[in-house]
C-alpha cells in the first residue's frame, strides 16, 4: 500500500470521526467494503450511563459524587491540614513554665521568703485519716 493511499484513508477516517462528533444521533453502519454503502441509524431512546457507586450513596450518581467529594475534602483538607496547623502553631508550654518559675523565685526573694516553703500547703486544711481508718496499713515515710 503506498504512502499516498495510507494518508488518504487516514484523512477519510478523521473526516468520518468529525461527522460523528457533530451529529451524535447518526451512526454509520457498514457491512461492505465500499465506503459509499453506508446506512444511518437514529437513536430512539436515551442511553443510560453505567454507574458504579463510590459507596457513599447508592441511590443517585450526583449524591454519591457529592458525598464522596465532601468527605474527602473535609477528611483530608481540613482534618489533616488543620491538625498540622494546630501542631505547628501550638504554644510551647515549656517556655511558659520556665518564665513563671523565674518570676515566682524573684518574687519570693524580694519578699524574703524561702524559695521552697516546707509547708507548701496549709497544714490546717489537710485532712488525714484517723488511726482507726488506717488500721494495719503500713506507712512508709
UniProtKB/TrEMBL annotation:
Annotated TM spans: 70-90
Electron transport recorded as keyword: yes
Keyword Transmembrane on entry: yes
Any coiled-coil regions, as ranges: none
InterPro entries named in the record: NADH_UbQ_OxRdtase_ESSS_su
Entry keywords, A to Z: Electron transport, Membrane, Mitochondrion, Mitochondrion inner membrane, Respiratory chain, Transit peptide, Transmembrane, Transmembrane helix, Transport
Membrane protein topology class: Single-pass membrane protein
Location in or out of the cell: Mitochondrion inner membrane
Single GO cellular component term: mitochondrial inner membrane
Family: Belongs to the complex I NDUFB11 subunit family.
Assembly and interaction partners: Complex I is composed of 45 different subunits. Interacts with BCAP31.
PANTHER family associated with the record: NADH DEHYDROGENASE [UBIQUINONE] 1 BETA SUBCOMPLEX SUBUNIT 11, MITOCHONDRIAL (PTHR13327:SF0), NADH-UBIQUINONE OXIDOREDUCTASE ESSS SUBUNIT, MITOCHONDRIAL PRECURSOR (PTHR13327)
Function: Accessory subunit of the mitochondrial membrane respiratory chain NADH dehydrogenase (Complex I), that is believed not to be involved in catalysis. Complex I functions in the transfer of electrons from NADH to the respiratory chain. The immediate electron acceptor for the enzyme is believed to be ubiquinone.
Protein name: NADH dehydrogenase [ubiquinone] 1 beta subcomplex subunit 11, mitochondrial
Source species: Laodelphax striatellus (Small brown planthopper)
Amino acid at each position: 500500500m503506498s504512502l499516498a493511499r495510507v494518508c488518504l484513508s487516514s484523512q477519510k477516517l478523521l473526516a468520518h470521526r468529525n461527522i460523528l462528533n457533530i451529529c451524535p444521533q447518526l451512526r454509520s453502519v457498514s457491512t461492505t467494503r465500499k465506503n459509499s454503502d453506508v446506512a444511518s441509524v437514529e437513536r430512539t431512546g436515551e442511553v443510560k450511563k453505567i454507574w458504579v457507586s463510590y459507596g457513599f450513596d447508592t441511590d443517585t450518581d450526583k449524591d454519591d459524587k457529592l458525598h464522596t467529594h465532601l468527605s474527602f475534602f473535609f477528611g483530608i483538607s481540613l482534618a489533616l491540614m488543620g491538625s498540622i496547623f494546630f501542631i505547628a502553631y501550638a504554644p510551647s508550654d515549656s517556655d511558659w513554665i520556665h518564665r513563671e518559675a523565674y518570676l515566682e523565685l524573684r518574687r519570693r526573694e524580694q519578699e524574703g521568703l524561702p524559695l521552697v516553703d516546707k509547708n507548701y500547703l496549709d497544714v490546717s486544711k489537710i485532712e488525714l485519716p484517723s488511726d482507726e481508718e488506717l488500721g494495719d496499713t503500713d506507712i512508709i515515710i
